[in-house]
Design brief:
It contains ten helices and two strands, in the order H-H-H-H-E-E-H-H-H-H-H-H. By secondary structure, the chain is mainly alpha-helical. Strand 1 and strand 2 form a beta hairpin. Helix 4 runs antiparallel to helix 5 and helix 6 crosses helix 7. The longest helix has about 30 residues. It is flat and about 65 Å long. The N and C termini lie far apart (about 50 Å).
């Protein structure tokens, strides 16, 4: 018999995708920082059990920085601040914390899905929904490194021509606009060339429809997502339900 970890990794990717969608929907209904924190910690515990905690934390590090900035900005400048500790608004801190935890939870769930499933399986699953979705995702992921390399080359060329990035934000925005405009134009030209190549090679989105086979584990996974959504709805609208 397969170990439990291997069984969890081998769950039908369609069932996993439905679970992810249900959990993301549930995170949108949770409106307290404590509930969002518990949901995020639960996701991290699942990642630790699956053995992907370290790569997951590396991917979440930029989101943690972004969340800290969100909390700080709302603490300082949120217009709904009424109570302060020195110049830190409590209402803005609470709102920023909820926003940051919701963003962290959403990214955590999606990154777990991406880490436990090879990219080819995700593309294949999208192709099952519609063949064009799979090929679009594959082309996008294949072209992103090319765009990044093209951006570095264009930035170096512009600097050699006398472009100054500057120290202030508006100077940096103006400098990067000079870089992004050629990148966008080249990307559009590259996309048109790819479309022509697909047409010349006779690409046809019509394909044989495949069947999905659900076992008891897949159904339990979807049921757990539905339970989590129901719990989130109960927490969000508990006062409405109790008044009925």
């Amino acid at each position: 018999m397969l170990p439990v970890k291997q069984k969890l990794r081998n769950i039908n990717i369609g069932a996993q995708a439905i679970l992810v969608l249900l959990v993301l929907l549930s995170l949108l209904f949770l409106h307290t920082w404590f509930a969002l924190l518990v949901a995020t910690l639960l996701s991290l515990l699942i990642a630790a059990y699956l053995g992907i905690l370290i790569p997951l934390l590396k991917r979440l590090l930029p989101i943690v920085y972004l969340g800290s900035v969100i909390i700080l900005l709302h603490t300082l400048v949120n217009p709904h601040n009424r109570h302060f500790i020195y110049f830190f608004g409590l209402e803005g801190f609470n709102y920023g914390l909820i926003t940051a935890l919701r963003l962290l939870g959403i990214v955590t769930v999606t990154q777990i899905f991406m880490l436990i499933n090879p990219l080819r399986k995700i593309i294949s699953a999208l192709s099952w929904i519609h063949p064009d979705l799979g090929i679009v995702l594959g082309l996008v992921l294949s072209i992103l490194p090319v765009i990044r390399q093209q951006m570095d080359v264009t930035l170096g060329v512009q600097i050699a021509r006398g472009l100054r990035i500057g120290k202030y934000p508006w100077q940096r925005i103006q400098a990067y606009l000079a870089v992004m405009i050629p990148i966008i134009i080249k990307s559009l030209i590259r996309a048109q060339i790819m479309a022509q190549l697909l047409h010349v090679r006779g690409y046809d989105s019509k394909g044989e429809k495949r069947q999905i086979h659900w076992d008891i584990t897949d159904k339990l996974v979807i049921a757990s997502g539905l339970c989590f959504l129901i719990i989130s709805l109960w927490i969000r609208y508990k006062s409405v339900f109790t008044s009925l």
